[in-house]
Specification:
584 residues; alpha+beta; Thrombin, subunit H; eight-stranded antiparallel sheet; six-stranded antiparallel barrel; 26% strand; Peptidase_S1_PA
Amino acid sequence: MDSPATPGSPEPSTTSPTTVTSPRSRRQRRQEGSDESTDSKIDSKTPLRQGFPGPLLRLPLFNGIVAENTSESIDWPRCLNTIHSVLRKYLVHDYSVSLVNRIPPERLPPVFDVVSPNQNLTCLIITQRDVDTNSWYLALKELEELYNVGSIGGFTIELIDPEMFQPEWPQPVGEDEAVIAFWPEIRTETMIALDKFDWYTLSLVRWGRRLNALENPITILIGAPAVIDETRDSVTNTIRKTLDRFFLDDIEIAVIPATHPFSPLDQPTDLILPTSAFQSSIAMGSCFGPRDVDTSATMGGTIRLHDSDGNHQDAMMSVFHCFRTIVGNEIESQGLRPTPNSQFQTMIPSDPDRQNKLQNLEEDIKRYSGKIEGLQQNLDWTGDSRYQKQIDAITNIMKTCQEEKDTIEQFDSTAGSLWACSGFQTEHLYEWSLSLATNRTSPNTLPPLGHSELSGPMDRELYLPIDDEVKSYLSQNPKTGSIVWKKGRTTGITVGKMNNVRTNIVLKDNQNRKHVFTGWEITPTKANVPFVQPGDSGAWVVDLEGNWCGVVFAQLASGSGVMYDAKSVVKDVERMTGCKVELP
């Protein structure tokens, strides 16, 4: 059962989400350890990581090499036998025991693989926590008693569940939870407490590391700029008082330092666009952006608008915020009514993605050219015909790259121009843009969904075959827990679940006016696979029957996406344009 620690392997980080422990957790610990003496040093504030003497060091930590002669100085073989006897007595699951040197990142030696003085000598026990018993508490209690009488000692004892190596992630809250009835009032008072931030996101989800959502606590999840501890504590204490009034002491609070929820992709990316991005047909989920702006978003799909005279117009839908820096204050505050041939041209693919593709091809051509030069020298020296075959093969590859580069340089990425947009209107807080395609078609053809994109057992009959199209949109709110998917510029096809509680996004503009955006949250179905990331804004959300459910307009630090439902977006588009909306 002994397993040596791997030097340099970090423990999971908990510095990204800052979770405030709820009274429920404290009460649960009192119930589990009602006979615990007041001088106990057991740190059990985190259910999946406990130990003594507390408090345990804050994660992340690195496992360093134990200094020489440590085993003899603490009589480790005898201590290990004692620890094994206690663990076998109480633990339900298999476990591993290691003696490691726990090192915080700021104390890492310049060369990590060298032995450093023992800073935090720790007996690290990795085992799954059994939620149905008090096995962890009972084992730690007996080990602490042995520690106090000197039977073991000279090190910290730390129990950690393997799920601590998994990231925390959000999952939907059920419709029948007690907090749902009180959430409108709790949300209002929470937003007052958060008013000191320039912007923030506010969600109610199940938040934790467990795959089973019901094992994770319901959590008020707040995304905000990085804040100091005093500010965070002040906010969470205020929210806690509100929860206590409703006797909701089982609700937890977590504050996550986050990037701006409306951040379009504005940094270099390793994504290499497929050649199909440069073609006459614009696919759903295509990379999209204004001309001469270093941002990328997603073109969701195409809607058809009929005016009062019976004329129709097909327009591509995305988000407004990628145009925000170029449209001016008037359009930002009032929106843009239908304007053919506006000055704001739209590019598909976006300018930065097109340049990135060309740069990658140029680097490939240079690399292949260097290989050919080296092979040619070998051929000249040896006369071996095998070098000639390699030269011919690489030359063909380089020729293909050059042809692709020439095609992209000659390709006109101008897809059209901005025709209408929502702006950030105080009275109607929606977030969309419509662009006219002048030289390319834009059908709402759905990409095929393969088995690999859908998590868990799924009915094969629910899969969407290739060449199906979005033909309708949901005329009602999406169902809680329903599975939906989207194709975005950054993350491609991802699958999520609809949350029962809407998310609020609050930001202040340059005039310090507050804007509150409210949308449906879509949580990821996998812990390590975010539903959206910057650059995915504008993507259409589609259910497994091929219905358009809504448009993604923001991303959360938790990996969730926030969408406006299609019904509301259509209503706002019709208000702004004076046209009747249908799908092509």
